[in-house]
């Protein structure tokens, strides 16, 4: 396997400008505060340096390490055209949904080409999820327009 340098960032959203630049929105500084029992979607900006030219198969694994141990997978194919080319990848929020009930760690790992069959993973990013306590039934009730009039 190539000598790789991989960088990854957890954020809320990613936009790609017409110039090719990426704008990362809501970058998490190592901890994310999330609501109990609500599905949270995370985006990931990933940069890989050092892949050889040609097609590559990538598999990503997001693991939420709490008492329920949720795991989500995503597969991507990329084509590297030049040995000096940097490969910037974006995992959009679709498909990386986690429904936390307890605080824990969310990690992102990658497996590339032959590593996929061998189930070898490289952990590339991790954040802590701090989950708010569940709301009492009284707090869950929705307020309607009629209630306010």
The largest sheet has its strands arranged as 4-12-11-7-8
Name of the level-1 CATH class: Mainly Beta
Helical fraction: under 10%
Mean pLDDT: 82
The rounded distance between the terminal residues' Cα atoms is 67 Å
Spatial extent as radius of gyration: 19 Å
Looking at CATH, the homologous superfamily is Immunoglobulins
Structure summary, number of beta strands: 12
Going by CATH, the architecture would be Sandwich
Order of helices and strands: EEEEEEEEEEEHEHH
> How many strands, what sense, and barrel or not for the largest sheet?
5 strands, mixed
Which range does the strand content fall in? over 45%
Q: Using the coordinates shown, work out and report the CATH topology.
A: Immunoglobulin-like
Spans of at least 5 consecutive residues whose pLDDT stays below 50 are none
Number of domains: 1
The helix/strand class is mainly beta
- Compute the number of helices: 3
Spatial shape: globular
Quick synopsis:
This protein has 149 residues and is mainly beta. It contains three helices and twelve strands. The protein has one domain: Immunoglobulin-like (Sandwich), CATH 2.60.40.
Describe this structure in words.
The protein is mainly beta. It has a single domain, classed as Immunoglobulin-like (Sandwich). The protein has helices spanning 114-117, 137-140, 145-148; strands at residues 5-11, 13-16, 22-25, 31-34, 40-41, 43-49, 54-65, 70-80, 87-91, 97-98, 104-112, 122-131. A five-stranded mixed sheet has the order 4-12-11-7-8. Strand 2 and strand 3 (22-25) form a beta hairpin. The chain is globular and about 65 Å long. It starts with a strand and ends with a helix.
């Amino acid at each position: 396997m190539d000598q790789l340098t991989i960088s990854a960032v957890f954020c809320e959203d990613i936009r790609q400008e017409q110039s090719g630049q990426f704008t990362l929105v809501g970058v998490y500084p190592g901890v994310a505060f999330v609501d109990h029992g609500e599905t949270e979607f995370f985006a990931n900006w990933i940069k890989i340096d050092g892949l050889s030219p040609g097609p590559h198969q990538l598999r990503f694994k997001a693991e939420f390490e709490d008492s329920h141990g949720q795991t989500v997978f995503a597969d991507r194919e990329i084509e590297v055209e030049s040995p000096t080319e940097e490969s910037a990848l974006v995992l959009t929020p679709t498909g990386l949904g986690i429904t936390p009930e307890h605080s824990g760690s969310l990690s992102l790992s990658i497996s590339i080409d032959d590593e996929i069959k061998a189930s070898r993973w490289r952990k590339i990013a991790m954040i802590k999820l701090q989950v708010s306590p569940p709301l009492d039934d009284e707090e869950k009730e929705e307020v309607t327009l009629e209630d306010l009039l």
